[in-house]
What does this fold into?
Amino acid sequence: MAVYTRVSMEDLGRFLAGFDIGDAISLEGIAQGVENSNFRLRTTIGLYILTLYEKRVNYEDLPFFLGLMKHLAGSGFPCPTPIADRNGEMLHQLSGRPAAIVAIANGDWPRQITTEHCRKVGTILATLHKTAAGFPTGRANDQALPAWRSIFSTLGRRANELRPALFDWIEAELTSLESSWPIGLPTGIIHADLFPDNVLFENTKISGVIDFYFACNDALALDLAICLNAWCFDDGRIITTRTNALISGYEDVRPLQKSERDALPLLARGAAMRFLITRLHDWFHPLAGALTRRKDPLEFVPIIECHQSVSDTTAYRLI
It folds into this structure.
């Protein structure tokens, strides 16, 4: 989440006139994240999240994202429900941007990750995969391996400004991934961005999974690899009690196939490379005036190096 586009209270008032959620009391920008403009909206009825979709989001994908969230929430998955206006429409225009309102999820994301957090995230991820299997439409992954090469090619050798020889290191890793990327794994709809700030807890229970704006169809195990990187490392060091809890929690709901287990180290390398390259792009192309925080691309270098040294999943304490 972030804020790139400002919204006046006058424009907001006209916008809300089409809904049955009361009148605006306040609108507070949310600085976390990088993709869209997000606000905490308080009305005379309650709290909501207002999202304005920025130029990097394809307008044609928005019905998929909102429809998926509606499907998941309607199936009992802990996901915020998009709010329709009086005409039943979920997607609108505000301040020159496509916009939507969703119900706010209670709880907060964990700052100190525990083994139990990881187990529950594994379980909720597998539950998401099973629940999303009933959604009738799909979306190609526009952040898959070909996109990493495309984004990296626009940066030239600027990566070396962050760390000497980083360009050559990324180039070699991309070439290795391109030559060995696994195929034929079980696929379905994945979240593709399930970092800790996208999972809300109340006490010890997951109360909300948010930010579905990278959701797409791809290998289910890739989603698990993204979570492994996001939840199971501390200062670049893998915490094997967390990896074991994460994957065990996942397999409580959906057991992995042998091919998925075998591919996990390579998928985790690729998942880390995706975020390194996209963060690298945002590092050198920040949007002026945006309320957001740049995220360090170098955070993923030791994570990739860890996975490079892994020959099989026994390194994650899997049996």
Summary: Residues 258-284 form the longest helix (27 residues). The CA atoms of residues 177 and 270 lie 7 Å apart.
